[in-house]
## 1
Amino acid sequence: MGFKCGIVGLPNVGKSTLFNALTQTAAAQAANYPFCTIEPNVGEVAVPDPRLEILSKAAKSAQIVPTRISFVDIAGLVRGASKGEGLGNQFLGNIREVDAIVHVLRCFEDGDITHVEGKIDPVADADTVDTELMLADLDSLEKRIVPLEKKAKNGDKEAIALAAIMNKALVLLREGKPARLAKIEPDEQSAFEQLGLITSKPVLYVANVDEASAATGNAFSARVQEKAKAEGAECVVFSARIESEIAVLPPEERADFLEAVGLPEAGLDRMIRAGYALLGLITYFTVGPKETRAWTIVKGTKAPKAAGVIHTDFEKGFIRAETTAYDDYVAAGGEAGAKEAGKMRLEGKDYVVKDGDILMFRFAN
């Protein structure tokens, strides 16, 4: 089960520097000119979770295996991308393939790094990107709605239902608002997702500040935070330059470096967790002497489907799941203690897995 966050933004805002720090590689070229990233680079990163270390110690596990999430570094967008300007068509095609958008905004002054719009204004930059994405969605829907409405007039029930969903998005897009603000009913969600609208994807704004503002933010990032709050979106503030320095340090030196620059934790850790939450994901664990492993599922997943993340046979032959809440497992000092305290319970096919559950699946071969 793969989940991808696409890193987008105007050229020279720090996307590739961020990607390099995320993946701790130089796979994406960070250069001072537009379109230095032409093919989308994909990097998988571990989702930081302090619970893994605690569980591993309790179970005396030989190794720890974290859950992972993918980040895609996508070529910089410019004004007119929806009409094919720059690498517009390629950009739009790449972004349609991701599950969520990480929108990097430049919140720093630097005369040595050019800005494609000639000025530093992160909110205006966000509006430029948002406008291009909305125009692309609007063009896509307006081409599809005409023949669909003809079918609807002839009494085609499927066409009637789909046209109603499309029109919910069209009303917003024509008002200059993203499709994700549409009020979609639960029974409409699947059809809505199949429309493939870019602006229906959840968004995380990343305010890329200068090194001196990494701990506190600045006036630019404050405006981004206001924008995110008004939209009900998330915002993370950090310095991509600092994060790129942290990424190449040995693990034992990172804590001292963070303390020296006044940061309680790496900004990338916050961003990775925010991206994970943005996709509505949660973690459950399998714990034993061999390994403590984290598994990714969508919030609301039932036990059989969660078992299927490990192996399809686990889902097909699911009988029940031995389940212990994280806090109960830790308080009892591990599996044996949890069982003795009556904290381990057996859950069936209708059980909705909770974040932090420690699970052992019973299944028929």
## 2
Amino acid sequence: MSYNWYICNEKSKNDMSKCEQCIVRQFSSLKALKKDDLLKMADCKTSYTIKKGEPIFEEGEITKGVFCIKDGICKLSKLSANGKDQIVKLVKPGELLGQRSMISEEPANLSAVALEDMEVCFIPKSEIMGFFNTNNEFSMNVMKTICGDLKDADDHMISLAQKSVKERLAETLLYLDDNFGKNEDGTLHIQLSREELAGMIGTATESCIRLLSEFNKSGLIELVGKKIAILDRNKLRRLSE
């Protein structure tokens, strides 16, 4: 686990520690926990602030528990043999990280790195596994989440194999818009570097830059410095299909 973090660790002194009052837990398997479970979890968890660019954990690490994302967005990525960073998924508030590795008792097969400043809570494995033994709904929710992640991985693999780079870029831009929204100026809230965007669609950075320029000239998007604004969703949708 990478502990180059700024530890808040003010248990029961701030709202981050009051798990029963935390809104984001309603978006994860933790929504199945009862009040007594949440009080026990609040007593054993640790809260962190993670700065943009810092890892939550890295590929090959033993996580020893799960991470609940309270605020901010991170990327899950895998380093390829040629040193390229392949982004597998973007994770938003309310989601849990490390469930599969914890259950399989294997090192993390992906790295999780903050794309913006984040607030994250770490819950030890001993506490999570205790909930498995006493709460069937929680266990089922975790299994459904893992199955959903595997389905998303299958869909991503099929997209890489069957779609052109242009189609994947259109699909990814719509995904960023649908799942993470826009800034006040209409640009995508998630500001990925060109290298990160290329890693997400599985192409070279130069190809990604060329296609963005092509989309810009075609009126599909507008490039505002390093930011991207979608101008024609319908055409992007048709292109992505």
